[in-house]
């Protein structure tokens, strides 16, 4: 049966009755010939507030050129983005996770309302990445996602001190703040790091959330394998964008939709990619949320199950030695996929947008001779993955701990309870946190924040103060992909939902046992019940606007903090 490449746009633009629609399109430069071709959306998040999405307009133009060359008519769509790196540690950070829903919703609204026949989404700052794939699952029209690429690493101008002579990312700036506040570096060194850590366009340069999700979606099959990894300023990025425009037209002509490609096994491949690269705990939010948009069930327990058999293979920041551009130079995600294939941990027959299976992509992966970033199976950095799911009397609904980069599997110490991130940061800055403490930051969950802020301001301060190896931190909020250390997040139920974390008091002994997958406070069940009976819900911080709307509709973190 022949594929109607204009199945959707024909309804909007064809026939005498649609003359008004065509007239308005002609007002902004579309011709009769343009309107007679498949209408292809090109959705991106260019915004003037950050380096992360700075190249989106250039990439969109290249994608549109590719669409035109392949016989389609591109239509540019722009939406918003919130950068974690700039808003971190402030009230503004609460908008970050909320923006995932806004981005997906806004692109969906335009694509459905203007009846696109296909779509290419361009992502950058980290919440735009899951959003731009979630919307592909919702729309289920031929489409794919291209990530705009990592920023390059920076280098200090000075040649002495702890930050000299190493490749810098935004992570180093946060940790330099902690070192400065602890009296370990001068204001001049801090300024040197600030001035040189972010040298140009692109998203944050380690295996933080942006690069974690961009590589995960290559493994899922919704981005062409290896193209997301091309750094933002590399000329090959624009070439890849042009090819994405041609590729979406091929998908349109063949009638290949996202849901016809992606299966539960595809999502297991994506999870394996996250685990093998020591990726961000935010994947535990974003992949289940994405799976839901594809009509597939993926739970936090799937991460734990796969983590037990997936080795950590890529030596990447924030806990390792190398940056995302160095990963690309080594061979990138195709080499990681090849390792997983060799280990029998890749579902090799799953389809991808390129028309090849993920196994075929892995087998064809070129690897740079002598590279040190991606280890062989025999040289795996850890025998099991970088993420574990814990439960216990503090988190009966689950929570997540990132294991990459440290050897500790247990911690027992007194709770230091804070009702918000700013108070915890002030305590670290004033030297009030001591070795063995367990920092508890609550009322930062999806509803309680609202918006589930990341705690990089605090965790970076701990690392800079030299406390990263001796304290633990737990929260119903999130962690940045740049966080490392003994850190637990996504505690469910959250404090605002009368979760047990709301009953904790400073001085309570917290026991974390990763091997047993437990997070517990050493009080009796009757004491916990008594404390929770006295609990009173705090007044909502917002009673109108988008933050209020989000708090009223969002699910818990173990379900992906979704609003639909």
How would you characterize the overall build of this protein?
The protein has 564 residues and is α/β, with parallel strands linked by helices. 38% of the residues lie in helices and 11% in strands. It contains 22 helices and twelve strands. The strands form two sheets. An eight-stranded mixed beta sheet has the order 5-6-10-9-8-7-11-12. Strands 2-1-3-4 form a four-stranded parallel beta sheet, with helices on both faces.
| Structural Rg | 23 Å
Percent of sequence in beta strands: 5-15%
What is the residue-averaged pLDDT? Answer: 96
Helix-strand makeup class: alpha/beta
Distance between the termini: 35 Å
The count of DSSP E runs of length 2 or more, i.e. the number of strands, is 12
**Taking strands numbered 1, 2, ... along the chain, how are they ordered across the largest sheet?**
5-6-10-9-8-7-11-12
Percentage of residues in helical conformation: 25-40%
What's the total helix number?
22
> What overall form do the CA principal axes indicate?
globular
SSE map:
Layout: H1 9-13, H2 19-27, H3 32-35, E1 39-44, H4 56-69, E2 73-78, H5 84-87, H6 95-113, E3 118-123, H7 128-139, E4 143-147, H8 170-181, H9 187-196, H10 209-220, H11 235-254, H12 258-261, H13 264-276, H14 283-293, H15 300-307, H16 324-330, H17 333-342, H18 358-363, E5 387-390, E6 399-402, E7 410-418, H19 421-429, E8 438-441, H20 456-464, E9 472-475, E10 486-489, E11 509-513, E12 518-521, H21 525-533, H22 545-553
Parallel strand pairs: 1-2, 1-3, 3-4, 7-8, 8-9, 9-10
Antiparallel strand pairs: 5-6, 6-10, 7-11, 11-12
